[in-house]
């Protein structure tokens, strides 16, 4: 590893874990205890697809939300009727419409009277359904008043956002024929994207741990050779052997969470299109560094001479010829992703850059013992819970989820996430996981494999296998909780940390190795020269 990796390590760590929350797009079905349920007004709030045809040509599809009242929206597209859409006159539909309605869907404005009043008047006029245009871009839950004791409405009511309603209104004003189809398809019971994300997260930690342990063992072998061949240089070995790796300590673990919290608040306050552009640039810098490091480590096995031949480059110092050859590709790859990141296939490039970044950080930044790992994960555990749940008390919304989704930025979330499209979901969207949910537990799991190899433990007697099983189980429980809670964003570390850290601490205590794991983090080793003298 080149000396230029060390200064970049803090930047890579901050970029990678500023958003360590698992977030999946909101579910299509919502329960809301604050909205009263009354006879005839007890529907769950569901998202509704509004497919449109202009002059019998299929056009835009809008998304609205179904009302508490009225019959449930059909879930199958084949069961949904294609019906003529007309604009109410008067537009608020608080009095009997002047235009003739015969089984049509009525487009009305929000305001003046209650939602249930609009629906009753539309139904009495002969409408088959009612689309209500909201007075803002967001959707609004249409409920019944608490004093409405008997709600008997037999047509469906759907709220549309302001921009969707305005678009339909403009088309109708141009005397074009508009027909609509209303339905609310169910999501599949099992999200295949979540399965792939689980495999991706577990596989990334597995590869990163093996790479970290392998590098550590090679460095230990090289160190031992140097000790045998150059006993007079013993005093200089400690500094020489530590190059290329950053061992974090307890204070830096605590400071990291404090700095990450400050950075998260800054993201929340400054969230906008231009600020996301800055994040994209930072992500590309980290991604280029990560991709370059991974490719150099992989290709140096086949191009050993190019990897061991160096040339001096201004500002960067000694750089291998292999690094010089690979860097243009990495920069081009990141630049192409940044330019086309809004395309449907851009998630592939984002995941490649993200995984490379995570692999590199776990390789460069290391947990030296269980004490530091416990402090780091405990702080991250509290950080995750606070910014997902408790931040709502101070900011009136979840700061972590707002940042992860990229609200107010015009972008589809911040780039510090791995994501996979929900390909078999009729609603589309992405399942996503924050870098920190992989990287932070990965630092501890990589430490467990380094310890196992250093102590020559087999897979069953070591800590790595059980730490991996614990991590996979914790992440699996996270997805279960996610689906049980209607798709609302979950702090993954709430489940992962107790599983992973709890398993490690329990095994260490049971085996009587907790003290050594906690303080030293490595087995007792006898210097070869002392061993030789003793013989």
Can you walk through the features of this model?
The protein is of the alpha/beta class and 535 residues long. Helix content is 52%, strand content 14%. It has 17 helices and 15 strands. The strands form four sheets. A seven-stranded mixed barrel has the order 3-4-8-7-6-5-9. A three-stranded antiparallel sheet has the order 1-15-14, sandwiched between helices. A hairpin with a 2-residue loop joins strand 3 (45-54) and strand 4. Helix 4 packs antiparallel against helix 14. The longest helix has 38 residues, at 192-229. It is elongated. The model is unreliable at 1-7, 20-33 and 237-242 (pLDDT under 50).
Largest pleated sheet = 7 strands, mixed, barrel
- Straight-line distance between termini: 37 Å
Helix content: 40-55%
Number of DSSP helices?
17
Compute the number of strand runs. 15
Which class do the helix and strand fractions yield?
alpha/beta
Please, what is the average pLDDT? 83
User: Radius of gyration from the CA trace?
Assistant: 29 Å
| Proportion in β-strands | 5-15%
Across the major sheet, the strand order is 3-4-8-7-6-5-9
Q: Uncertain regions: pLDDT < 50 for 5+ in a row?
A: 1-7, 20-33, 237-242
Characterize the overall form: elongated
Main location: membrane
InterPro entries: PA_dom_sf (IPR046450), PA_domain (IPR003137), Peptidase_A22B_SPP (IPR007369), Preselin/SPP (IPR006639)
Protein name: PA domain-containing protein
Transmembrane segments: 195-214, 245-268, 274-303, 315-339, 372-390, 427-449, 461-480, 492-509
